[in-house]
């Protein structure tokens, strides 16, 4: 059973990598979302929302270097992140400062991974997913339909004056963020991911940083580096499933779907991947096996929840960035079409 759950988590983590684009770009808002505003329609942006947009723009356009720590339930990582624009193309480097050397490079839309013991590879993308928190790259115009941006005041981080903004889902079904934004450069200097009780699940905290055109000079050599080959992504199929979800958090849309059999487990799994543009999760359906004795169970590790329920010999698993109560509500809402 543990083998199966680990396989489901691995499959879903691969799916979640593809959710960088806004959710409305590939699917319409499903039945669980409110119908008061069309998916992707612009929403009025408050002053904190404008500040968040400025943060996102600064993170994508300035030449800067961060030395920061990433704190989670799994431990503390020390990292360095560099970013610059060269001939209007983003160049970036993420380097793990302690332990085995892990390096990720970005040149335009190419993201290359270098890790000891693994063959280097390149994927397509518009930013390094593992660098800055995902909130930095969010579409705040769209999120304003479903989230509140609350000004908290000003304080100091890394000896810099920062504006503080909270991001809270209006329906209280998702996690929230608190963001500390440098008042001068508009770069994010601290980001806390909070559960619904206000407990910190993850923290991004800049220890020192510099904004300087010389960062571009340091990154310019990346233009002539031979990067690993680009991994081919299988073409998406137009799949039809005999099940659907009757409830989803407001603003959530289906991003993709797949049907596959995982290595070592002879169980076909159907999966739908969903995102609201900030948090992502997948719903997986497969036939229950003889070893599946427990009807309901869940595991939560930091931001990620794996919730499983068995109904009529069918296993329903929700995996992703959700509180357990929300994952359970989604699983309970799954309905199956009557067989002819």
From TrEMBL:
Superkingdom of the organism of origin: Bacteria
A Pfam family: MucB_RseB_C
Keyword terms of this UniProt record: Periplasm, Signal
Extent of the signal sequence: 1-18
MucB/RseB N-terminal domain ranges (all copies): 50-216
UniProt subcellular location: Periplasm
Molecular function via GO: antisigma factor binding
Keyword NADP: no
Domain MucB/RseB C-terminal: 240-334
GO biological process, one term: regulation of polysaccharide biosynthetic process
Gene Ontology cellular-component annotations: outer membrane-bounded periplasmic space
Family, per entry: Belongs to the RseB family.
Protein name: MucB/RseB-like sigma(E) regulatory protein
């Amino acid at each position: 059973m543990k083998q199966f759950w680990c396989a489901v988590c691995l499959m879903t983590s691969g799916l979640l990598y593809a959710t960088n684009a806004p959710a409305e770009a590939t699917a319409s808002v499903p039945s669980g979302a409110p119908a008061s505003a069309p998916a992707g329609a612009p929403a009025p942006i408050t002053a904190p929302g404008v500040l968040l947009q400025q943060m996102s723009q600064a993170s994508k356009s300035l030449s800067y270097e961060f030395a920061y720590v990433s704190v989670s339930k799994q431990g503390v990582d020390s990292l360095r992140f560099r970013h610059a624009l060269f001939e209007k193309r983003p160049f970036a480097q993420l380097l793990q400062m302690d332990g085995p050397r892990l390096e990720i490079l970005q040149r335009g839309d190419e993201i290359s991974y270098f890790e000891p013991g693994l063959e280097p590879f390149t994927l397509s993308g518009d930013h390094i997913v593992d660098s800055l928190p995902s909130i930095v790259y969010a579409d705040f115009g769209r999120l304003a339909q479903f989230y509140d941006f609350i000004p908290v005041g000003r304080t100091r981080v890394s000896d810099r004056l920062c504006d503080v903004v909270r991001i809270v889902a209006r329906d209280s079904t998702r996690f929230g963020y608190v963001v500390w934004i440098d008042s001068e450069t508009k770069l994010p200097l601290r980001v806390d991911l909070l559960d619904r009780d206000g407990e910190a699940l993850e923290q991004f905290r800049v220890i020192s940083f510099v904004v300087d055109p010389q960062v571009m000079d340091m990154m310019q050599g990346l233009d002539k580096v031979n990067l690993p080959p680009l991994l081919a992504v299988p073409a998406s199929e137009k799949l039809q499933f005999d099940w659907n979800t009757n409830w989803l958090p407001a603003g959530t849309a289906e991003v993709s779907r797949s049907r596959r059999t995982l290595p070592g487990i002879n169980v076909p799994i159907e999966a739908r991947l969903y995102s609201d543009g900030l948090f992502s999760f997948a719903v997986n359906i497969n036939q229950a096996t003889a070893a599946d004795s427990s009807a309901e169970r869940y595991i939560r590790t930091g931001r990620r929840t794996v919730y499983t329920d068995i109904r009529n010999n069918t296993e329903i698993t929700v995996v992703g960035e959700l509180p357990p109560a929300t994952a359970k509500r989604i699983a309970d809402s799954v309905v199956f079409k009557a067989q002819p």
